[in-house]
Design brief:
The complex is a heterodimer.
Chain A lengths: L3 E4 L2 E5 L4 E7 L3 E9 L6 E6 L5 E4 L2 E5 L5 E6 L8 E11 L2 E2 L3 E2 L3 E6 L1
Parallel strand pairs in A: 2-12
Antiparallel strand pairs in A: 1-3, 3-8, 4-5, 4-9, 6-7, 7-8, 9-10, 9-11, 9-12
Chain B lengths: L3 E4 L2 E4 L5 E7 L5 E7 L5 E9 L2 E4 L6 E3 L9 E3 L8 E8 L9 E2 L3 E5 L1
Parallel strand pairs in B: 2-11
Antiparallel strand pairs in B: 1-3, 3-8, 4-5, 4-9, 5-6, 7-8, 9-10, 9-11
The chains are: A mainly beta, B mainly beta.
Chain lengths: ~110, ~110
């Protein structure tokens, strides 16, 4: 079945440093979504990427979708303590019968020290 | 105020007992999902439903059962056949099962089996 690998599993940075998490799928995706889960909370949707090579920005966050639509990345510039949480990518594949369910990566836990 | 509610937030049960977790949404979404989250494991799909009176097994359905008698409700029963039921359970919904639909998550239920 479809697998989505995410690295690193954990990263601890000083406030102001940059952060990047990477996501790789074993199959070509129709789209990829990113979610953030704060400690003790539930996942919250951040963004969806659909097109090959797509790049989207949300303030200090930059999301990329690879040309082959099998990998993606999330980059945070100048981290802040409010960025603390676990970031998940979730990929959706195209099946002969339609679309698959989302397959989530294991997430990258980000800790930011002031 | 639209959203997804899960109750209770914390649940304790003795080993060998079945337990039902509640999930209700007032977003008028067709699709609903149940995920299990274990530390370092990301989100794993248990069951999903695309429409009332229909549901499909996810990746880890063994030991679980669901029903979808109403559009707004998708309860999950953790049976005594589930070998490791202690986990954080998340319910989610989306407009439909098709592509490009973000998922909205409830606050989760943390189940502990003693």
């Amino acid at each position: 079945g479809q697998q989505v690998m995410q690295i690193p599993q954990y990263q601890h940075v000083q406030e102001g440093e940059d952060f990047t998490t990477y996501c790789n799928s074993s199959t070509t995706l129709s789209n990829i979504q990113w979610y953030k889960q704060r400690p003790g909370g539930h996942p919250v949707f951040l963004i969806q990427l659909v097109k090959s090579g797509e790049v989207k920005k949300q303030k200090r966050l930059t999301f990329q979708f690879g040309e082959a639509k099998k990998n993606s990345s999330l980059h945070i510039t100048a981290t802040q303590t409010t960025d603390v949480g676990t970031y998940f990518c979730a990929g959706q594949a195209i099946l002969n019968s339609g679309y698959s369910t989302l397959t989530f990566g294991k997430g990258t836990m980000l800790l930011v020290s002031p | 105020d639209g959203g997804i509610t899960q109750s209770p937030k914390y649940l304790f049960r003795k080993e060998g007992q079945n337990v039902t977790l509640s999930c209700e949404q007032n977003l008028n979404h067709d699709a609903m999902y149940w995920y299990r989250q274990d530390p370092g494991q990301g989100l794993r799909l248990i069951y999903y439903s695309q429409i009332v009176n229909d549901f499909q097994k996810g990746d880890i359905a063994e030991g679980y059962s669901v029903s979808r008698e109403k559009k707004e409700s998708f309860p999950l029963t953790v049976t005594s056949a589930q070998k490791n039921p202690t986990a954080f359970y998340l319910c989610a919904s989306s407009i439909g099962q098709g592509s490009y639909n973000e998922q909205f998550f409830g606050p989760g239920t943390r189940l502990t089996v003693l």
